[in-house]
Every structure is written in C-alpha cells, then in structure tokens.
Amino acid sequence: MLTKRILGAAAGLVVLLWVASAEADSFRLVDGNGVVHLTNAPNDPRYRGMPIVSGTSTGWLRMTETSHHQFASDIREISMRHGVDPRLVESVIRAESAFNPTAVSRTGARGLMQLMPKTAAMLGVRDSFDPRQNIEGGVRHLRYLLDRYPGNVSLAVAAYNAGEGAVDSHRGIPPFAETQQYVQRVLGGSAVSSSRTVGPLPKSVYRYSGSDGTVTYSNLPPGSRLTVAR
Fold this sequence. Notes:
The chain is mainly alpha-helical and 230 residues long. It contains 9 helices and 5 strands, in the order αβββααααααααββ.
C-alpha cells in the first residue's frame, strides 16, 4: 500500500513537472514503436510543437467562485446608501475577485473590489480584506467615477479598471483588450444600461444611532420626522 502511494505521488509529480515544462516551448514525437518522446530542445525534424497546457486551462486547478449571497446584504445596503445600483456593484465584484475577499492581484490590488493600497487609504479603508470595508471603499470610488462621467456608466466602469487618466486621454474606453473585455463583462452581467447613470444620489445622507444600537441611514436632516419602514 505504501509503495502504491509513493508511486502515485511520484506520478503526480511527473505530471506537474510535465505541465510546467509544457508551458515553455514543448515538442512531441511518436517513434515507430509507439513510444512518445517529449522535449524542449528538438533534435529531430519529426518533432511537432505542442499547445501550451496549464492546470487552469485544463480545469485541474480551476478556482470556484465564492457564493455572493454572503455579501448580498452589505452590497445592497452600501450601494443604496451611495445611490449606486447593487447589480452593478455585484458585477464589478464578480469581475474583480469572483467574490473572494482575500484576493490579491499581481499589481497588489486587494479584496472583493480589488482596491489598491493608495486608493484604499484615500477612501478611509483600513483593512482591504474586511469585506464590508472593502465594499464601502469600492462603492464610494465607483460613485465618484459615475459622477465624473455623468450619463455614461461604461466610462465609469472603464475608469475603475484602467484609471481616469487612461479614459480621459483616449476620450473614451481605452483601446486595451483587457479594459474593453472588462467593460463588456461587467455591464453584460449587471443588466445595467451603459448609457445612463444608475440612480440619483441623495445630496446628503444622515446616520442615526438608536438607543438600542440600531443604525439607520436617511436623507432626512436632523430634526425632521423620521419614519422607519417595517
């Protein structure tokens, strides 16, 4: 039994090493006896190039999307408070991190809405890996972009991905394949029109703390009669 386990582990290691080597230039040759030869330095004209293979592309290492339901309440409450359509926010999160609150990009963006450390600091986010803080910061940034490009959600989404400078310098969605695909993915999955804003933003939002610890947000100023729907 132990021998079988060792052989199984060794076989797995060989497969992983082969996958790693296949990601470089790899070549395959089947000789007259049916023996398969693999190399990255072909010395025979019968060798043929092999397509790049990876665990992700074959599905072996595919990451599953974390369920968004656990964040639905925070997304809705924060989005509505800032006048942003919750469907748009969900779609941005899906495109940015697949709802993984611990996601880190190769450029250092963190959390659900992939906030860069500098952006997070400007938005008052102390812990980008805290889902609620991250959503709060990301929605506030998205709200700012929606106001910066009024009437054009697609430009706001493009700026979220590529930055305002890129959108401004190209006077539209930048001609970057990544950004163009990002905009299509976000707007295609949010059911939000790309040609209009996603709802009015209250001029002011007030926060009330009840004696029982309940927190209520309203656009009614202090002194006004506040009715809480039940």
